[in-house]
Amino acid sequence: MTKPIDKDEIKKLAHLARLHIDDSEIEKYTSQINDIMQFFDVLKKAETADIKEEYSILSSVNRFREDKVSKSQSIKDTLKNAPDSENNFIKMPKILE
Amino acid sequence: MTELSTLTAYELHNLLKDKKATSVEITQSCIDKINQTDGKINAFITVLPEKALEQARSADEYISKNSSFNPLHGIPIAVKDNICTKDIKTTCASNILSNFVPTYDATVIKKIKDAGCIILGKTNLDEFAMGSSTENSAFFTTKNPHDTSKVPGGSSGGSAASSACNQTIISLGSDTGGSVRQPGAFTGTFALKPTYGAVSRYGLVAFASSLDQIGPITKCAKDASVLLNVISGFDEKDSTSVNTPHPDYTKALNQSVKGLKIGIDENLFNEGLDTAVKNKITEAVNIFKELGAEIVKIKLTDLNYALASYYIIAPSEASSNLARYDGARYGIRDKSAGDIITMFKKSRYEGFGNEVKRRIMIGTYALSAGYYEAYYKKAQKVRFLIKESYNNALKNCDLILTPTTPTLPFNIGEKIEDPLKMYLSDIYTISVNLAGLPAASLCCGYHGNLPVGMQLIGKNFDEFTILKAGDAFESAAGHYKQLRKL
């Protein structure tokens, strides 16, 4: 059986996923995520030794195209949904002090 | 007089051709129905009555000048709110996109507009299409029009409910693990998930890119065939779109199914299947026999791994796809944060609901160093076992028939606190997405006032046979006409 994920790991996961998590919620997430992860144990029984690694279920082929200039979205449209912008830029909080 | 909104697109096209109805009348009939019923059903996030009537007026003008026009010209459609519509809010039923107005149309939207469809509005879903009941919508829960104490299924619950109760003539949903078929079954509609790559995903907000497909939810197979004619086809804007010819799907209608081989795996009819569902499926099999189809026994191996494989692959892809919602370029931003990482975390915390956060964390875990081989890679390999299993079975038959869902529509609130229990409602549909195959759910009868759905699974790019069998069944059984009473 898979080793259960503890509360510290849930906090670390939330950080990796860039999700704030309230202390009051950690317990619930830990138990629900553990239930789900444990459910995945069934896969250990699946015989997959002979299967080669592939990542598309379709016979994927590279699709080439001419390197042509075409119309793209305008700056005005691009900024329409931005929470904050100035001139032609999206404005963000400080990265460095 | 029959209300126009209760008719099918197929019937309405004939009325339009014979000048016995106008698109404005049809559209108004749907708007009236929305006004009368949506306070109770909650199918729509956004309704666009003025825009719709304006489009309908143009459609009528076009129809008055042209003797031949697309079967969907002037026909109202409802669109799931995770498909981008230019200048119309597209929220994914999430707080994080509650103010998002796309500046472009998804390819399917461009196609339905070109065909002359009238867009009535945007329908409710489980947030980012993650769920099986619409209870995960950040805004409200859609009710099942057959019994408002029940869920309509999900994630395309709004589209399915609106098609079922005649608020719209046809609708579009999206299906990642059963999200058009399961609500199709719960509402008694015809819901088709096309082959992966058959319909462009450009402009569909990505959940799990290797599984997502846009599909029609309609009152009957006939309407699905005209809608599939419009939305299918190669699109260079979707790198997984497949460049293959599509037949005229309406040629599948009114055909005999004599000699059609329908595969049944009896193991799927045992554990966990409600007797009420089982009985209706058995009746459906008998109807197919009477119509001259041949029932073939098949064995689908490895399906017991499908749910686990799916719930690793889908959240993994979701955790990558949803990384873009960080409050930077669009959507909701938490403005209280002083630094950028806190801004990301707070915006996502406020913007996403519980199921979305849970799946992002599971996906992040499955993809993280040290666990990738055990989870993601293993799940991908299992996916191939499942694909092989279906391909082998489909060598001996033309279609596979299964129940769509193991139970009748369940109560609102019944499964929301137990994610695993909720996941089980997609047990029959999920493996089909893993294999990339086309499949439809259609109504095969009612238990009391609740519909039961059966699933028809076809070979790759053989939606034609699914529509042929679906239409023949509907013509013989006629269950779809029940929707007129809603």
Features:
heterodimer, A: 97 residues, mainly alpha, two-stranded antiparallel ribbon, 3 helices, 34% helix, 4% strand, flat, B: 486 residues, alpha/beta, eleven-stranded mixed β-sheet, 15 helices, globular
Compute the number of strand runs of chain A: 2
What is the strand content of chain B? 5-15%
Count up the helices of chain B. Answer: 15
Q: Mean pLDDT score of chain A, rounded?
A: 87
Query: Sheet with the most strands of chain B?
Result: 11 strands, mixed
Helix content of chain A: 25-40%
Largest sheet of chain A: 2 strands, antiparallel
How are the strands of the largest sheet of chain B arranged?
Answer: 1-3-2-4-6-5-10-11-9-7-8
Describe this protein's structure.
The complex is a heterodimer of chains A (97) and B (486). With 97 residues, chain A is mainly α. Helices cover 34% and strands 4% of the residues of chain A. Chain A has a two-stranded antiparallel sheet. In chain A, strand 1 and strand 2 (89-90) form a beta hairpin. The mean pLDDT of chain A is 87. Chain B has 486 residues and is an alpha/beta fold. Chain B has helices at residues 9-17, 23-41, 49-65, 107-115, 157-164, 181-187, 221-231, 275-290, 306-321, 340-351, 354-367, 373-393, 419-423, 430-435, 463-477, and strands at 44-47, 76-80, 118-123, 170-175, 190-193, 213-218, 261-264, 294-297, 399-403, 439-447, 450-458. In chain B, helix 4 (107-115) links the parallel strand 2 (76-80) and strand 3 (118-123). At the A-B interface, helix 1, helix 2 and helix 3 of A face helix 9, helix 10, helix 11 and helix 12 of B.
